[in-house]
Design goal:
By secondary structure, the protein is mainly alpha-helical. The protein contains twelve helices and no strands. It has helices spanning 40-54, 61-67, 72-75, 82-94, 107-124, 128-134, 141-156, 161-183, 188-207, 215-219, 221-224, 229-244. The longest helix has 23 residues, at 161-183. Residues 1-37 are annotated as: Disordered.
Length: 264
């Protein structure tokens, strides 16, 4: 007869009795959710999600760490500080913007295309315009590529370098300011209802103004009700591009262009 197996070999395997495995005691379970691998990309993704759901002011190192189930100190191995995190957020949202190859024959259209694309990114991510306003000089790869593309479009059209620099800077400022103003508009159903009510009160007041005291403002009241924010933005953009056309070299000017002013 064969000898019985040693006691250590006779231990039942989990579930060998047909019953489910027993859960571990609560004091042996890890606290909270299991931690995910902490990377710079994960930190930026969490920060963008918080900004989208709770606003830019909620994006703190402590709040991001909480979202990643870790401590704030662990974030500093990947980002220098909150300002560094903000710049990484900018780079992330702008990384997919594609700039066209400069075409001197289409510089107006290309300038408008790039400006509209960058403005849309800022509108899609409320809070990024505020970050950009606070940034002394953008140095993230995504923004540098856009800046370089804008300068390339203007230089290819023959604009002097200092005109290209000033025009590019003015376009970026207008785009950012527009998106920042849009981000201040009340969000949510309650906020929009309150804004609509307030606008109605303002319009009623403007309609009541005396025409003899404010003849032009009252005469243009019907025109004030037309169009939307996007239409107004594109109109101002077209006006800007028409303005810098005055500084374009003859080859880049449309036929019939008036004499150019002195270069600023």
């Amino acid at each position: 007869m064969a000898a019985p197996p040693p006691p250590s070999d006779r231990r039942p395997t989990p579930g060998s009795d047909g019953l489910p495995d027993l859960p571990p005691p609560p004091w042996r379970r890890g606290p909270g959710r299991p931690r995910q691998q902490l990377t710079r990309e994960a930190i930026v993704t969490a920060a963008l999600r918080i900004m989208g759901e709770e606003g830019l002011d909620a994006v703190t190192m402590r709040r991001v760490a909480q979202a990643l189930n870790t401590g704030p100190a662990s974030l500093y191995a990947h980002v220098r500080d909150k300002q560094d995190l903000h710049e990484l957020m900018l780079d992330e949202v702008f990384k997919d913007v594609r700039a066209p190859e400069p075409d001197p024959r289409r510089w107006r259209e290309q300038l408008k295309e790039v400006t509209l694309a960058t403005t849309q990114v800022l509108l899609d991510h409320p809070g990024t315009a505020q970050i950009l306003m606070r940034t002394l000089i953008p140095t993230t790869p995504g923004l540098l590529v856009i800046m370089d593309a804008t300068l390339g479009i203007l230089r290819a059209a023959g604009f002097p370098d200092h005109v290209a620099l000033r025009a590019s800077d003015a376009l970026a400022l207008y785009s950012t300011a527009y998106a920042y103003e849009a981000s201040l508009w009340p969000s949510g159903e309650a906020g929009q209802e309150e804004a609509t009510r307030r606008i109605g009160e303002i319009e009623d007041y403007l309609d009541s103004l005396p025409a003899d005291r404010l003849p032009h403002l009252t005469a243009l009241r019907p025109a004030m009700r037309g169009g939307d924010a996007v239409e107004h933005f594109e109109f101002a953009l077209d006006v800007f591009i028409a303005g810098i056309t005055a500084y374009a070299p003859p080859a880049a000017e449309p036929s019939g262009t008036a004499d150019r002013p002195t270069t600023p």
